[in-house]
Specification:
Chain lengths: ~80, ~350
């Protein structure tokens, strides 16, 4: 599983990353987590409000920090 | 889906009302009770502050220390309570708007109408200031005119609910309304001006060449419970972050209140022609949040600073911040950055002069 967190690096983006890491650990799935802070790359995803979470190329959430329950749901799905 | 339902025996108890309905009632009742309690407490604040200052601390009414302490004990809970209520309300309101929806509304709008809409949407669209650049790219590539995009980017930070609450709580609704009105007018006119200047080629090339596929995130439908949760999150995020600045700001304000002589500020932040531009220039590099600056502003006004000068200072601090400008440099060429700062700066100065003249 390939998880990407898009965000220029404000507090909210950091929080999104932390929640995804915690969720991955809790779900016990094998996943790589990558933080993308380059604007050009973020824009290529068609995302324009951050933080956003992308899993295996699919955008899961935009413009908000996901809750852990949400994150676990994506990992299970 | 339950075939048995229609033929229910009278003896079997009716199934409980669907969970959603009973929850809705519970939430509504809780909200009403909360608001009632809020008002009851809010009306008692002055008596409580007087009791704390004069009875419990036995300070003398009318003394410098007594007045400063009273100011602090009254204004701190008052402002924090107002802040909590409004931030909660705005949080719920914002759950109806997303940047995606705002973009859809603005794409394809003609300029003047678009500027007005964009300035209005700037207030209610949830948006964190570090999203300014992705948002700019998203808007421009979706065909939102450049000037309309700027109206949004100017109004979003400037007309800020925290600033409005503090202005209302400390200076009254007239000043708050003036701030809201002039903030919107600046956002509309500055955006419109930038649009008229035809500066599209001063957007960085990579942005203009970019073809963005609008992301295929389905519009989420939120339940009321989720919207109330948005309000709660907003309170936790915003009030949790700014309360310390409010307290510090009011403490500084209380100090100025009790100890700085009347009229001192009239000589520094008065109505001289140079006072307004100086206030704006000093304000741009300052990156204080609204929460900390307003209590200081109130105290300055109380000591004779001119309202126009102070408003200009405050707008410059909140709307034109150096860090945001530096981030925007990634998508705007220097010339457009300069025009942005210039147009907004001039708008703010005009507001400053206007109020110095009429008040």
């Amino acid at each position: 599983m390939e998880i990407k967190i898009l965000g220029p690096g404000c507090a909210k983006c950091g929080e999104a990353e932390k929640i995804m890491r915690a969720a991955v650990e809790e779900a016990g799935v094998a996943a790589s987590i990558e933080k993308i802070s380059d604007f050009q790359q973020i824009a290529k995803f068609g995302v324009f409000s951050t933080p956003a979470v992308v899993i295996d190329g699919q955008i899961k959430c935009i413009g908000k920090v996901p809750s852990k329950t949400e994150a676990l749901g994506w990992l299970a799905g | 889906m339950q075939p048995g339902n229609i033929h229910n025996q009278p003896a079997t108890p009716q199934p409980a009302p669907p969970l959603a309905v009973s929850r809705k009632i519970k939430y509504t009742l809780a909200a009403l009770a909360g608001i009632g309690l809020w008002f009851a407490l809010y009306r008692q604040l002055h008596s409580i502050a007087e009791y704390l200052t004069f009875s419990l601390l036995t300070l003398e009414p009318g003394s410098r220390l007594g007045e400063a302490v009273l100011f602090f004990f009254y204004d701190t809970p008052k402002v924090l309570m107002l802040l909590t209520l409004i931030v909660y309300g705005v949080g719920v309101l914002r759950s109806f708007f997303t940047p995606e929806r705002t973009r859809k509304i603005l794409a394809g709008k003609r300029e003047s109408v678009g500027n007005v809409l964009a300035a209005g949407l700037g207030i209610v669209t949830p948006f964190c200031s570090c999203s300014a650049v992705p948002l700019f790219i998203g808007f421009v590539t979706a065909g939102v005119p450049l000037g309309v995009t700027f109206s949004f980017l100017i109004s979003a930070p400037m007309v800020n609910e925290v600033a409005l609450v503090l202005l209302y709580g400390l200076l009254g609704w007239k000043v708050a309304a003036l701030y809201l009105g002039t903030g919107l007018v600046i956002a509309i006119l500055a955006g419109w001006t930038i649009g008229r200047l035809r500066m599209e080629r001063h957007i960085e090339d990579w942005v203009r060449e970019m073809h963005v596929n609008a992301s295929d995130i389905p519009d989420q439908r939120l339940s009321w419970t989720e919207r109330f949760d948005h309000g709660k999150t907003a309170v936790r995020d915003i009030v949790g972050k700014v309360w310390i600045y409010v307290v510090l700001g009011i403490a500084v304000g209380a100090g100025i209140h009790g100890y700085v002589p009347e009229g001192l500020m009239a000589s520094i932040m008065g109505k001289e022609w140079w006072a307004v531009p100086v206030a704006v220039l000093v304000g741009i590099p300052m990156y204080a949040n609204a929460a900390g600056i307003v209590p200081v502003v109130e105290a300055l006004l109380g000591k004779g600073a001119a309202l126009g000068t102070v408003l200009a200072f405050m707008m410059a601090v909140i709307a034109l911040s150096l860090p945001e400008t530096i981030i925007l440099r990634k998508v705007l060429k220097p010339r457009l950055i300069a025009v942005f700062l210039g147009v907004v700066g001039i708008g703010i100065m005009l507001v400053g002069y206007l109020f110095n003249i009429i008040i």
